[in-house]
Specification:
42% of the residues lie in helices and 7% in strands. The protein is mainly alpha-helical and 139 residues long. Strands 1-2 form a two-stranded antiparallel sheet. The radius of gyration is 16 Å and the shape is globular.
Length: 139
């Protein structure tokens, strides 16, 4: 599930995670996303009947989960941005394209893999423009 304040609603996907506890789920998500333990509270969202993170979207996620009988939800709560120093600011489409044109080939290769591997149902203005600009069709 992806939620960014001010963004247009779009289709999101979710999957069950087979772990023994919420804490193990948080650790597994952090490992997958490369989030250090000191950033768990700021970069991983959590909702359950017994505890919740303090992210703005927690109530929305909780309502969604409750309607489906889901006991707990964890999600990446990474702030938008292009560089670590600019996190929290949603870049314009022009800025995002400019960043990709001007970044190193290694960073661009990671971005290409991310765009190409993202599920086809996830259609955003950014993704459509990046696919067109760079020819990065889904795999």
């Amino acid at each position: 599930m992806a939620i960014t304040e001010g963004a247009k609603p779009l289709t999101v996907l979710w999957a069950e995670l087979n772990v023994s506890s919420i804490d193990r789920g948080v650790e597994a998500l952090a490992e997958r996303e490369g989030i250090s333990e000191r950033n768990f509270n700021s970069s991983i969202g959590l909702w359950s009947n017994s505890r919740c993170s303090r992210h703005k979207e927690t109530n929305q996620v909780g309502d969604w989960a409750s309607q489906r009988g889901i006991e707990a939800v964890i999600w990446t709560a990474l702030k938008p941005g292009l560089e670590k120093d600019s996190r929290g600011v949603v870049p314009s489409l022009s800025d995002a394209l400019g960043y990709l044109h001007g970044t190193s080939s290694a960073v661009r290769a990671r971005a290409e893999e991310y765009i190409r591997r993202a599920p086809a149902q996830i259609v955003t203005e950014y993704r459509a423009a990046i696919e067109q600009e760079f020819g990065w069709a889904p795999l």
